[in-house]
Design a protein that fits this description.
Blueprint (H helix, E strand, L loop, with lengths): L4 H4 L4 E2 L2 E2 H6 L4 H10 L16 H19 L9 H13 L3 H22 L5 H34 L5 H11 L5 H6 L7 E9 L7 H16 L8 E4 L2 E7 L8 H11 L5 E9 L3 H17 L5 E4 H10 L4 H7 L9 H12 L4 H8 L3 H15 L6 H35 L4
Parallel strand pairs: 6-7
Antiparallel strand pairs: 1-2, 3-5, 3-6, 4-5
Helix pairs in contact: 3-6, 4-5, 4-7, 5-7, 6-7, 7-10, 12-13, 14-18, 15-17, 16-17
């Protein structure tokens, strides 16, 4: 079946209305399709499809497919399958859902949609219905290819799961352990003179459960394993990790593209990169700096993205221990006994100074937010409504957080010493 570009430009109509409207305006269509496939009347709490997939997840993927079909009926060429749908299919593969079951359900869903369009058509719509069938076939091909690729990526990642050479190699570089020439020859990785260190961390508080973190880590590993040369040396855990990209590999691995791929693969969880480049013998310090950049970006409520030292150089300097940091942190001392002002300031900065959003989160009237921020200015001498005042207050919040961490460590150490000095009973 060949569909010409001119045919694709046509917005198809069936039964006197645009064909896509029949799909978009029927909110119950996804549930009807799934009920037909699964032999159920409708979604029940915790409902599971016959293939073992949760109903809610199947409906999410199906809605993505219906959007692709509707766009094709409107005259647009088939678009890539949504990233979240590809991620969900990968999850099913990891859970052991048979690819054949997913393919069978996909074909059944597309047949249902074509039957639904045929039911709406009139005798005068034979040409439009034939073109609609061609476009559905094109979308189905794109969907099946994407779903199969998602399955193969999981299989490929599983075959390398027990290959810990990447972790061993990364660990040796990050810790500064000496590597003999025989050891490097036995590894599949080539030792570079310098590396780009990527510290990565997920946003906490987004469905932050053990199951979610494990899923996040698996998705990350699957995506890394799908790179042309496989995963680079990496130490990964449920909260984040470290990737090392040798200079020889930078041509094949673009950091911005890699970030976009990993963020798409973990779409439900915002991701931040900290990037530092260093000579091989300086990798331990570079790794520490890269993770400090990620931590700092999170403390500053910066959006997901890639952060280099040049992006946070002033803020990074504020976090360095010493009298300067203590003095900056002391700016907030007048607010210590007024926690509602400190909370309002933090929430306001976190929400990019959107007073209505801040008011909604704190369950306040926007005017109350304005009043509290004016009180912050009175007590600290810094107005959060000005660029200078806001920057200084934000720096004070960061310095204060690091000072609090230092104090906690000191107190813990003092407590341990006291315990150790206690006489034995």
């Amino acid at each position: 079946m060949v569909t010409t570009s001119s045919t694709y430009a046509e917005n198809l109509a069936l039964g006197g209305a645009p064909a896509a409207v029949h799909l978009r305006r029927d909110a119950r269509l996804p549930q009807q399709v799934l009920a037909k496939i699964g032999g159920q009347r409708g979604p029940q709490p915790g409902a599971v499809m016959p293939c073992g997939v949760r109903w809610a997840e199947a409906e999410e993927v199906l809605r993505g497919c219906l959007d692709l079909i509707a766009a094709a009926l409107e005259g647009l060429p088939p678009s890539p399958v949504p990233a979240m749908s590809r991620v969900r299919i990968g999850d099913w593969a990891a859970q052991g859902v048979a690819l054949e079951a997913v393919q069978h359900a996909t074909h059944a869903a597309f047949r249902f949609v074509l039957d639904e369009l045929s039911r709406r058509a009139t005798s005068a719509d034979s040409r439009a219905l034939a073109i609609a069938g061609q476009r559905l076939a094109a979308v189905l091909e794109e969907v099946e290819t994407s779903f199969t690729t998602a399955y193969l990526r999981v299989v490929r990642a599983a075959t390398t799961e027990h290959d810990d050479s990447g972790e061993v190699f990364a660990s040796a570089l990050i810790t500064g352990a000496a590597m003999t020439s025989s050891w490097t020859r036995s590894s599949r990785f080539v030792l570079s003179e310098s590396y780009t260190v990527l510290a990565l961390a997920q946003e906490h508080g987004v469905a932050d459960t053990a199951g979610h973190r494990e899923t996040w880590l698996r998705r990350l590993r699957v995506e890394l394993a799908s790179l042309p040369d496989g995963s680079p040396p990496a130490l990964l855990g449920v909260g984040g990790g470290t990737l090392l990209i040798g200079d020889e590999d930078l041509g094949a691995i673009d950091v911005s593209d890699l970030y976009e791929r990993l963020q798409a693969a973990t779409a439900e969880t915002p991701l931040r990169f900290g990037l530092v480049h260093a000579q091989t013998d300086h990798l331990p310090e570079a790794t520490r700096q890269a993770h400090e950049l990620v931590d700092l970006a999170a403390r500053l409520y910066r959006p997901p993205g890639v952060y280099r030292m040049s992006d946070l150089v002033v803020e990074y300097q504020v976090t360095r221990p010493g009298p300067g940091r203590r003095q900056v942190a002391a700016v907030l001392d007048p607010l210590r006994d007024q926690p509602e002002l400190l909370e309002t300031l933090i929430v306001h900065i976190r929400n990019k100074r959107n007073r209505r959003r801040t008011a909604g989160i704190l369950h306040l009237h926007p005017n109350t937010v304005d009043y509290r921020l004016r009180r912050v200015a009175v007590h600290t001498g810094l107005d959060p409504a000005t660029v200078h005042g806001l920057w200084y207050l934000q720096a004070a919040l960061v310095a204060s957080a690091y000072e609090a961490n230092t104090a906690s460590v000191t107190e813990a150490g003092s407590s341990t010493e006291t315990d150790n000095d206690s006489p034995q009973q």
